[in-house]
Amino acid sequence: MKKVLFVCHGNICRSTMAEFVMKDMVAKAGLTEEILVESKACRTDEIGSDTHPGTKRVLTAHGISFTPRQARQIRRSDYEEYDLIIAMDDENMCDLSRLTGGDPQGKCHLLLEYAGESREVADPWYTGNFEVTYADVAKGCRFLLDKIKPMR
Questions:
Q1: Which segments within the chain are labelled E, that is strand?
Q2: What would you report as the CA-atom Rg of the chain, rounded to the nearest whole angstrom?
Q3: What is the C-alpha to C-alpha distance for residues 44 and 116, in angstroms, rounded to an integer?
Q4: If exposure means fewest CB atoms within 10 Å of the residue's CB, which of 21, 82, 85, 86 is most exposed?
Q5: pLDDT in tens, 116-143
Q6: Secondary structure tally for the chain: helices H, strands E
Q7: Which helix (H) or strand (E) holds 61?
Q8: What predicted TM-score, i.e. pTM, was given to this entire model?
């Protein structure tokens, strides 16, 4: 089973959005037994909080189901547990580099790298634009799924 972990600053907006978008794509592709998707925070600001209301609104608008959850923080042990750790921005990548000792196994990547772009996914906590974030997350997840789905 391929294990994918999405991370962002607080695990209530971007990484949570990516988790639910990717789970929806994985389910529609019939790959729920082959790809595990979760999300966590790089920082402790929002630990224990549920998904941001703006994220819930945009997911609902796009027909993506979600469940109540609590933000959790990434731990060093997660580096061994997951095959890929997908970050939303450069600050997340710095946090991951510190946590993993420089990402020796090359597991950490920015989400939009998979779409051939070298830019960050904007944080709607600051921008207020959850729709723009959704578009980037959906694009990145589509390309990521194409990259990791097993050949049948």
A1: 2-8, 35-41, 84-87, 108-110
A2: 14
A3: 30
A4: 82
A5: 999 999 999 999 999 999 999 999 999 9
A6: 6, 4
A7: helix 53-61
A8: 0.97
**Closest to 67 (Cα-Cα) out of 88, 38, 30:** 38
Instruction: Tell me if residue 35 falls in helix, strand or coil.
Output: strand
> Environment class of residue 25 by beta-carbon count within 10 Å: exposed (0-12), middle (13-18) or buried (19+)?
buried
Domain count, the chain: 1
Which residues are known catalytic residues?
Answer: 8, 14, 123
Roughly how many angstroms between the first and final C-alpha of the chain, as a whole number?
A: 14
Q: How far apart are CA 17 and CA 14, in angstroms?
A: 5
Q: What is the CATH number of the domain that holds 110?
A: 3.40.50.2300
> Around 146, how many Cα atoms within 13 Å sit in the side-chain half-sphere?
11
